[in-house]
Amino acid sequence: MRGICGYEPVSLALPFGGYPRSTESLLAGTWDDQEYVNKGILLVGAEPAPSPFSRKFNPLAIPRIRGSQEELDKWLGEFEKYPDERFVSDGRSETVTIRQGRSADLEPERVLDLEVREYPCDMDSVVP
Q: Which residues span the domain enclosing 102?
């Protein structure tokens, strides 16, 4: 990837979702005299991922939805029915946005000194 694309990859999508016998080499190691570090390992496809700041987030098993119209329609429909399950980002790297009243869902070790901003439960009142 370094030689072809000119950048350092930071995640790995497991081919067909197959985990190696030992997961210890997934996040960091050496292959063919090249060191690598992965911040996350993506599953083959299942469901939307929780916020990276959530207690439910596992960097060794990040779920994702498949990029088909059928899957997108399914999950967008689920978020229409259950809006409280949405993860919304304000796009700023120095903040963590959460739904009002959900601060207990945050993993303090991941939030560190970032500003936590709560948005109202009524999504219609959010002003872009």
A: 45-123
Q: Are 120 and 101 in contact (CB under 8 A)?
A: no
Q: For 2-24, give the DSSP string.
A: HHHHSS---EEEPGGGPPPS-TH
Number of domain units in the chain: 2
Question: Half-sphere exposure (CA, 13 Å, Cβ side) for 66?
Answer: 10
- How confident is the model at residue 19, as a pLDDT? 81
Give the containing element (helix H, strand E) for 34: strand 34-37
pLDDT tier for residue 15 given thresholds of 50, 70 and 90: confident
Are 61 and 39 part of one and the same domain? no
Beta bridge partners of 13: 42
Tell me what the mean pLDDT of segment 37-63 comes to.
88
Q: Which long-range contacts (CB under 8 A, 24 or more apart) does 115-123 make?
A: 117/90, 119/88, 121/84, 123/83, 123/86
pTM to 2 decimal places: 0.73
